[in-house]
């Protein structure tokens, strides 16, 4: 018996990045998984990785939908129940930073950027959670939301709407955790720091530019004290821990940072003040 044997999980945003790594870890540990994303080609890559890891096709439900649509959300839930008979774990991972096509950052971005960001990062999470709730109450299940260190309390002047959307998810996690804990459903979140995934491409950055960013920040211990940027598996392992009832049962409504220490750094402490203080 593996830790997720007989468990059924939906992992949104599993056609790439953190969601893909999560689907692979959960499935390798016995879960039946619904994998999803809009891009059918990348979703098929996830499926092939699962099959390549020895997962039976019977344990994979692959659904290409837009999670911001009501029909897409219904399809995710209904096809999971139809194929696997129940739902134990919902990983609300799909999300992105929406870039303003004009290149504008900060408060001058068009308000449509706010709408698009919140539609995916907040509204779709709320709606899918509402739809999954009766199934999770029945199974005494788990929800893991994927937030970000962008949620604060530090300021993120370039991407204000993204960071606000993740602050909303943190409070959503806390708000629903109490109500659902009383029904034996646990809700927690993981808040990643810089992780090398497809997110920069999704925001319009060419790969060589995003690689530069990962390399620069990852090798600068004033930015990431642990000495490297994150990989999807770093976060997927924490999602799996939070989805594992036996391992993390006493953690309820928490937002767990996984950022190599980035948010502990105060800018003034990154300067060597020894000479000044002589
Ligand atoms: P990726 O871009 O690699 O993956 C994002 C996933 O979300 C893809 O599978 C994408 O699928 C899916 N997705 C996006 N929009 C939609 C939509 N409308 N409908 C359905 N699926 C959608 O990024 P990450 O793995 O990095 O992102 C995962 C989560 O981690 C996000 O919530 C992100 O905010 C968070 N995060 C990431 C950090 C990082 O540094 N990478 C840091 C902090 C938080 P498709 O394109 O096929 O639709």
From TrEMBL:
Domain of life of the organism encoding this protein: Eukaryota
Pfam families referenced in this protein's UniProt entry, alphabetically: adh_short_C2
Matches recorded under SUPFAM superfamilies: NAD(P)-binding Rossmann-fold domains
Q: Does Oxidoreductase count among this protein's keywords?
A: yes
DNA damage among the record's keywords?
Answer: no
Give the record's keywords alphabetically: Oxidoreductase
InterPro entries documented for this protein = NAD(P)-bd_dom_sf, Sc_DH/Rdtase_CS, SDR_fam
GO function term, MF aspect, one: oxidoreductase activity
> This chain belongs to which protein, by name?
Uncharacterized protein
């Amino acid at each position: 018996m593996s830790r997720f044997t007989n468990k059924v999980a939906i992992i949104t945003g599993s056609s790439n990045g953190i969601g893909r790594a999560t689907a692979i870890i959960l499935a390798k540990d016995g879960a039946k998984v619904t994998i999803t994303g809009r891009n059918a080609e990348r979703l098929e890559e996830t499926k092939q990785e699962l099959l390549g890891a020895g997962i039976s096709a019977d344990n994979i439900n692959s659904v290409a939908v837009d999670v911001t649509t009501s029909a897409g959300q219904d399809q995710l839930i209904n096809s999971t129940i139809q194929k696997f008979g129940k739902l134990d774990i919902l990983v609300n991972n799909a999300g992105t930073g929406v870039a303003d096509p004009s290149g504008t950052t900060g408060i001058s971005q068009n308000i449509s950027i706010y709408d698009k960001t919140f539609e995916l990062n907040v509204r779709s999470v709320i709606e899918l959670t509402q739809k999954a709730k009766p199934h999770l109450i029945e199974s005494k299940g788990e929800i893991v939301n994927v937030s970000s260190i962008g949620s604060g309390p530090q300021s993120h002047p370039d991407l204000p709407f993204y960071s606000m959307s993740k602050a909303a998810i943190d409070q959503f996690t806390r708000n629903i955790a109490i109500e659902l804990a009383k029904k034996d459903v646990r809700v927690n979140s993981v808040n990643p720091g810089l992780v090398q995934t497809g997110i920069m491409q999704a925001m319009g950055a060419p790969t060589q530019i995003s690689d530069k960013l990962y390399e620069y920040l990852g090798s600068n211990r004033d930015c990431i004290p642990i000495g490297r940027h994150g990989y999807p598996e770093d976060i997927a392992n924490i999602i799996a821990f939070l989805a594992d009832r036996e391992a993390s049962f006493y953690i309820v409504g928490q937002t767990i940072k996984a950022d190599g220490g980035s948010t502990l750094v105060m800018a003034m402490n990154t300067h060597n003040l020894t000479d000044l203080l002589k």
